[in-house]
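Q: Could you write out the predicted structure for this multi-component system? I'm mainly interested in how the pieces pack against one another.
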Amino acid sequence: MRFSIYRFDPDKDEKPYMQDYDIALEPADRMLLDALVRIKTVDDSLSLRRSCREGVCGSDGMNINGRNGLACVTPVAGLKEPVELRPLPGLPVIRDLIVDMTQFFKQYHSVKPYLINNDPPPETERLQSPEERAQLDGLYECILCACCSTACPSFWWNPDKFVGPAGLLQAYRFLADSRDQATAERLDYLEDPYRLFRCHSIMNCVDVCPKDLNPTRAIGRIKDMMVKRTV
Amino acid sequence: MKSYGIYELNYAICEFKHEISVAIVRRKFDAVIVGAGGAGMRAALQLSEAGLKVAVLSKVFPTRSHTVAAQGGIAAALGNVTEDNWHWHMYDTVKGSDYLGDQDAIEFMCRQASEVVYELEHYGMPFDRLENGKIYQRPFGGQSQNFGGAQATRSCAAADRTGHAMLHTLYQRNVQANTQFFVEWMALDLIRDEEGDVCGVTALDIETGEVMALQARATLFATGGGARIFSASTNAFINTGDGLAMSARAGVPLEDMEFWQFHPTGVYGVGVLISEAVRGEGGYLLNKDGERFMERYAPNAKDLASRDVVSRALTTELKEGRGCGRDADYLLLKLDHLGADVIKTRLPGIREIAIKFAHADPIHDPIPVVPTAHYMMGGIPTNFYGQVVAPYKTGPEEVVQGFYAVGECACVSVHGGNRLGTNSLLDILVFGRAAGNRMIEDLKKNRHHKHLPADASDKALARLSRLNDQKDGESVAQVGDLLRKTMQTHCGVFRFPDMLKQGVEKIGEVAERAMRTEIKDKSRVFNTARVEALELENLVEVAVATMVSAEARTESRGAHARDDFPNRDDDRWLKHTLYFREGQRLDYKPVRLKPLTVESFPPKARTY
Ligand SMILES: Cc1cc2nc3c(=O)[nH]c(=O)nc-3n(C[C@H](O)[C@H](O)[C@H](O)COP(=O)(O)OP(=O)(O)OC[C@H]3O[C@@H](n4cnc5c(N)ncnc54)[C@H](O)[C@@H]3O)c2cc1C
Ligand code: SF4
Ligand code: SF4
Ligand code: FES
């Protein structure tokens, strides 16, 4: 199978280039990550992040034939050849397929991604009805892979100011939690021309999310909450 | 801060062996925690919230640690669904361990289970809920009411993503507590001084290639499991047993390394786990004749018997030719009868995995499964405060000053010969918290950093320089494959005397070959080839310890099933193994049969 892979090692390369590989896959190599591991046995300098190999740790987001996705859950069968692999767009490249995620996590941290509840905790659990709990479905499952934010034009232009789809999804995860008491504070933070309102509902984020989550809908809900509190 | 690249360091090490230890950059912390999985982050939280300066190192961003993959749940006798109490949970855990678990530690864990789960809920954990608003619980294997009576319902769950929900919740709480993470840093070796006290670690900043000495008054290992020593494994690439290898190299023994759990249901040909939650919710196993064969092996508990029992049953079915498919080499896990609703709400992650990795939608089709290496019961020996203990001068369990271990890398031992499903997420919370508390206390007493020995980093640097200079060596991938195949063939679900004997020799050869691996990539920046080579050296330590310990234990107990000694032998083997790297020496220590407050559960025949 043929691959064309983005290569850049700041320790020796002046600028990035695309390297071609033609590699015989074994029957067990079902996913793109298996193929990359196979390539690494002939060229150990190819660098990428990976860990769980089952789509749950969020390590191996990359741009696959022009579309962001996780290598470990992308079947090789059906990929157009040569398979063109690039690092996630819009973030600085550290090396090869590895990007610097600092800005992405900074935005995630900016939304205070933790439960805020200042009442003294009860002896046992805080109660939550199944319906209230269901509000968190489609939100808490995010694996912070950054496929969405790095597919979002608004995030490319303003990674320092626009929270981006992943961060906003998590902002809403806490806004939607019946146990959280910081709604006003959270909305105040997002009431800003950039942080939230740079989203123009282009929906790239929804298209690429490997966990089938829907940041655009979450962003819409936050906007609704803002409208509601002004009336 | 001045940074020294590996090239310069290597140069220095050849030329001036003595100056090198001074040249390396040092940083000082109150505490260093190696590992940001559930165990490391639970401990870090204690320390950060107490205002201490703690550095948490992780090879990967914290939420990428393998706790994220845990599916089924976390055990605690909340009694939200069926009547329950911690004492029944304790009984089940002791029995599940095949009486090799230490009963004081097991009592400690089961007593605190409800509290740590409620605490996690207060941190924001998105547990599923019952109609009355309480935490949802599901039945799991080996759980009983009334000391061996009816099935209990004890595992608290967030769908089949409990580990993911838990790891993210703990990370989030650490963000709030301002914990300092060193992301994509790999600890290389433990630093011990002349007195044997631990004073920190040497570590590699993967992104820059810089090596540093991190000095601490308290060092905690929470480096997770090492089931990557087997070819078929539910573990992540990064689960290479680093903490165990670093300990072994520093002269700390490893406990009960012959005990590895093979999970009955890994996806055939892939290894990805299908949680026991599937059977907890009512799924069951079938052989090629469509027979629900577990009824034969465990008439009462059936598919929810303890994991070692179920894995042996699957292996026997395969051996006797009742496997499915062309090569009769897998069995089937059926759950379509649960209905689309239950599958979609309670097991959505399983469905996703089955569709992606087995091309089977469990709403209609059964999932092909085989027993798969999953969990390491052994590890770095500790007491229930998370302090590392080893035989030294005064007895078999003397505290190694300044050194702590929790989570899958530690052996407290609460799991003994066989861990019960959902007891590990519990273990990492209870002992993560306990170790954090103990470290805070000890730090109050030990106000000063100990001197770093002059040769603090020599061992780690020597390994790096060997790797850098190696010519005409074998590839890491090749030796790694050989290691995994050797373990799989010689030390699997059933263990045969001649295979073990050959296994010890073969794994010794692998160990020698691993010392001569060569990497072509010499870059300083994010050199994953270098990381993988170092990981292979660690896997070797774990594999050798496993094979040697397994060969010596001539009985069957828990997950260690000897073909030539099919029975448990309490007279000779009711004891923990201690493996010392130097000379591959084995020693043993007694099992702690006396609980903290309740009566001991004396060993008896184990049936399900
Ligand atoms: C697929 C699967 C499903 C499971 N399901 C369940 C379940 O439902 N219930 C249950 O109770 N248990 C379950 N288990 C077991 C349980 O998840 C693990 O035992 C537990 O999560 C281990 O946690 P830990 O914190 O010890 O290690 P991990 O979460 O593995 O974390 C290890 C950490 O150490 C770091 N690290 C390792 N080496 C180094 C180094 N050299 N330098 C720096 N950092 C290092 C890693 O980066 C990582 O941060 C499951 C296990 C698997 C594999
Ligand atoms: S919908 Fe909003 S967040 Fe998503 S890609 Fe478009 S602009 Fe970005
Ligand atoms: S929302 Fe989806 S794409 Fe975005 S970070 Fe989370 S899991 Fe990844
Ligand atoms: S390797 Fe974990 S998401 Fe792909």
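A: Regarding packing and overall arrangement: The two ends of chain A are 59 Å apart (CA to CA).
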